[in-house]
Amino acid sequence: MADKQGNSPDMPDSPNSGNKRVTLADIAKADGTHVTTVSLALRNSSRLPEATRKRIQALAEKMGYTPDPMLHALVSYRERTRKREMPTQVIAYVTNWTTRWGWKNVTAHPDFYEGARKAAEQLGYKLEHFWLREPGLSHGHLSHILESRGIQGLIIASHTREIDDSLMFDWEHFSAVKIDFFPHYPELHNVTNNQCSIIRLAMRRIMQSGYRKIGFVMHRGWDHSVDHMWSAGFLVEQQLIEEAERIPMFLFPEPEPISAWFNESKGEVFPSPEAFKEWYEKWKPEVIVSRSGFVLPIMSEMGIRIPQDVAFVDLFLEDTSGQLAGVRQNYEQVGASALEILAGQLSQNKRGIPKIPTATYVEGTWSDGLSMPEKPSSTRRNS
After folding, report:
1. Residue 177: is it exposed, middle or buried by C-beta count within 10 angstroms (0-12/13-18/19+)?
2. DSSP run (H or E) holding 70
3. In this predicted structure, what is the pLDDT of residue 78?
4. Which residue range(s) make up the domain with 51?
5. Are residues 241 and 375 in the same domain?
6. What CATH number did the domain enclosing 68 receive?
7. DSSP strands (E only) in the chain
8. Fewer CB atoms inside 10 Å of the end CB: C or N, the chain?
9. Residue 60 and residue 206: Cα distance in Å, rounded?
10. Rg of the chain's alpha carbons, rounded to an integer?
11. pLDDT of residue 66
């Protein structure tokens, strides 16, 4: 029966009817359960049946419950303190390369791991590597091993395109985050470098320095592996240049056979010297944007001088001497972000394949270099 104000005696005041905050005790009273049960439900704890969790969560939302930030900070502090006293929780770093440690010899992948490892240490976890190509190891077998060891958090990283496109685990037992785009299935939360933004940043800096005839050289398989974000970013920025000065991309190897694309696990890759020479002499770029390992050896053999004959911008800049201009990709931040997102899922007991997966993109950092000096004002052309 309602009182004169229309409030039910069995329902606590709404936050809109005064300053009283809805508490866990209020929700427990309304639901006829214990405060501990309510607390577990709002943390989405697997210790409660899913129906119980959803019922209490819906009730809390209806009552206008919001967490107390001070109380949440206190609970987080206590949990961190308790973690120091308990055995370190393991997070699995699951790779699927052609060899167990082959990914350590490829651009970006060892830095992904190092960033995740450092973040794990800071948050009180231990990162442990698992290789899916161990002799006799199937997806289901590894899934069972991880579950039996009580490992609930997974980072899926360093999966080559030529192996498996799907990862068949018992996902209801795990929280998982993927680094980069492979495997494609299941669709998990993923973290990666923002390759589209990185090449757009490079293109803008190149044009600001007075260049217009910009040649882009990229491995076709690498562009494919990032869902064509490299070529998409280049083509978007190229629209700002007069059509007569636009140079077609040089993608290598040729479209057929597709099997030739899948060589990212074999160390350095190079374009055909003959094809590159033909493209270079036909289009005469003022600047080439690429990866130094792709083209600098061939350009040296051809006697092309940088920057006297053509300027150069490295999209995978590792040189710290200031000789090369380019974009430094923050690979370690990718690994760290993946670990931090996963830690958040674990703390909220979020398991399984997400209904709406999210993507987190890590930006690159521009670095000036002698390989791309600014063009004199007298030689610049307006786009």
Report:
1. buried
2. helix 69-85
3. 61
4. 15-82
5. yes
6. 1.10.260.40
7. 89-96, 125-131, 153-159, 175-179, 189-193, 214-219, 250-252, 287-290, 311-314, 325-329, 359-362, 364-367
8. N
9. 54
10. 27
11. 80
Q: Is residue 92 domain-resident?
A: yes
DSSP 8-state class, residue 376: P
275 and 350: one domain? no
Task: Report how many domains make up the chain.
Answer: 3
d(CA 12, CA 22): 7
pTM of the predicted structure, to 2 decimals: 0.73
Q: Which residue is listed with tokens 């992948």?
A: 109
Cβ-count burial of 78 within 10 angstroms (0-12 exposed, 13-18 middle, 19+ buried)? exposed
302: buried, middle or exposed (CB in 10 Å: 19+, 13-18, 0-12)? middle
Burial class (CB in 10 A: 0-12, 13-18, 19+), 171: middle
**pLDDT tens for residues 170-210?**
999 999 999 998 888 999 999 999 999 999 999 999 999 99
- Is 6 inside a domain boundary? no
The pair of structure tokens assigned to 84 is 């120091």
Torsional sign, CA 168, 169, 171, 172: positive
Note every long-range contact of 281-285, with CB atoms under 8 Å and residues 24 or more positions apart, other chains counting. 283/213, 283/215, 283/247, 283/248, 284/213, 285/213, 285/214, 285/215, 285/247, 285/310
- Sign of torsion over alpha carbons 49, 51, 57, 59: negative
**Amino acid (1-letter code) at residue 158:** S
For residue 288, give both structure tokens. Answer: 């080439």
Helices 24-31 and 35-42, packing angle to 10 deg: 110
CA dihedral over 68, 69, 70, 76, signed as positive or negative = positive
Residues of the chain with pLDDT under 50: 1-17, 265, 383
Q: What is the pLDDT of residue 41?
A: 82
In the block, which residue shows the tokens 């980072």? 155
Residue 9 lies in a domain: no
Closest C-alpha among 196, 245, 257 to residue 221: 257
Q: Looking at the structure, tell me whether residues 221 and 307 fall in a common domain.
A: yes
Give yes or no for a contact between 186 and 166, defined as CB atoms under 8 angstroms apart.
Answer: yes
pLDDT score for 329? 94
Domain boundary among 30, 47, 82: 82
Mark whether 258 and 375 lie in a shared domain: yes
